[in-house]
Amino acid sequence: MSLFFLSSFKKPQNFILLHTSHATHLSILVVMFAASHQNQHVFNTVRTTSKTTSTIRGGGRRPPTMKIKAAGGAAVMDDTGEVTIRRRPPAGHKEHLGMGSERFAFKMEAVTPEGERIDNEENKPRNILEEIVWYKDYELTLMKEKMPLSLVRGQVKLAPPVLDFKQAIIDQMEKTGQPGLIAEVKKASPSKGVIQPNFDPVKIAKAYEEGGAACLSVLTDEKFFQGGFENLKLIKEAGVTCPLLCKEFIVDAYQIYLARARGADAILLITAVLDNQDLKYFTKIAHSVGMKVLLEVHTYGEMKRVLSGDFEIDLLGINNRDLGTFKVDLNVTVELMATELGKEVKERNIVMVGESGIFTIDDVNVVQNAGCGAILVGESLVKQDTPDVGIKKLFGRPL
Ligand SMILES: O=C(O)c1ccccc1NCC(=O)[C@H](O)[C@H](O)COP(=O)(O)O
């Protein structure tokens, strides 16, 4: 995992100083930007929007006691709701063939006609979410070359029937009186590294089903989470009957069709990355192939924005993890649900999902009391050798 940018991020004024003293370099950057911009049109066979931006989001760490204090902080209560994740590196992608193990890199450096390497601050991701999204852009161009969209859409027709992801959660909620469980098949993460070294996606999925999970979330990102779209297929083919969420960083309609083709019943859309126009468009595509959408927010502004969007919301997740800083705080859910937006989702009967950082029965109770009808749990279950037993411990009883 490359976390290089966390330590190397410098102030924007440094960037200006560096480049105003190198007039020729500026023109190199302009040419590189123009070239990458042109490429984007060639790469995208389906609509991919080019939105820019999500605030680097904050949030304090919850103390071990269950007393809920106002720890979410100003960043979580930020009400702009803007997308601040830039969709692509401004100066494009670059393949460093033969330069170490990393074949891929953003154009972190520019080279002058004299062969001098200069720092390219503009082309460094601001946070991990931006790095993931930038890599997706690159990865998608390769995927489309290997397997064009027309082929994937053909595979969608042969995919197993879609299961009702939302209904499975509602059914469990009604049966148990506790939040419906979405258990995550997750090998590794950018924040924790490898979580389960003996990772066997089918074995884990079966144990989750055995333990009573309503639905499963399957991480499909390869580079940062060591997952894969193939895991969806393997789990389906092994006869697991829990509906499956494709846990992917979706920036392109191609990924939605691929998710369905590999057997997913729902997809995740991240509000920090997508504006309302994208959310509407991607929701429509997911629904057109029968899948539900788990829409994810982290701040007040994002929640406000999606609630005012003119698209249907199947399930609304509040991620307690700040995807920019990795900080996890259950108060994010508690505080957002205590606002008038929390009242609105209750009035609109929207199924709320508390995501990340859920380790104990007390944690389950905190998000349930805040108003969540479901929880999404990864690390605390997947790291156990017997995840089915882990579910019983988490809920304080067998499901
Ligand atoms: O898990 C991460 O480190 C991470 C980093 C950057 C973007 C997304 C990330 N995780 C995705 C998730 O939100 C979680 O996998 C999911 O909510 C389960 O969280 P947990 O129970 O804390 O494993």
Structural topology:
Layout: H1 4-8, H2 12-20, H3 23-43, H4 73-76, E1 93-95, E2 104-106, E3 109-111, E4 117-119, H5 128-146, H6 149-157, H7 165-176, E5 180-185, E6 188-189, E7 193-194, H8 201-211, E8 215-219, H9 229-237, E9 244-247, H10 253-261, E10 266-270, H11 276-288, E11 292-297, H12 300-307, E12 315-319, H13 331-337, H14 340-347, E13 351-355, H15 361-370, E14 374-377, H16 379-382, H17 387-395
Parallel strand pairs: 5-8, 5-14, 8-9, 9-10, 10-11, 11-12, 12-13, 13-14
Antiparallel strand pairs: 1-2, 3-4, 6-7
Helix pairs in contact: 6-10, 8-17, 13-15
Bound molecules: ligand LARABZUK.
Structural summary, described in words:
The strands form four sheets. An eight-stranded parallel barrel has the order 5-8-9-10-11-12-13-14, surrounded by eight helices. It has a two-stranded antiparallel ribbon with strand order 1-2. A hairpin with a 3-residue loop joins strand 6 (188-189) and strand 7. Residues 1-71 and 96-103 have low confidence and may be disordered. It folds into two domains: 10-146, no CATH class; 159-395, Alpha-Beta Barrel (TIM Barrel), CATH 3.20.20.70. The chain is globular and about 70 Å long. The protein has 17 helices and 14 strands. With 399 residues, the protein is α/β, with parallel strands linked by helices. It binds ligand LARABZUK. This is indole-3-glycerol-phosphate synthase. Pfam families: IGPS. InterPro entries: Aldolase_TIM, Indole-3-glycerol_P_synth, Indole-3-glycerol_P_synth_dom, Indole-3-GlycerolPSynthase_CS, RibuloseP-bd_barrel.
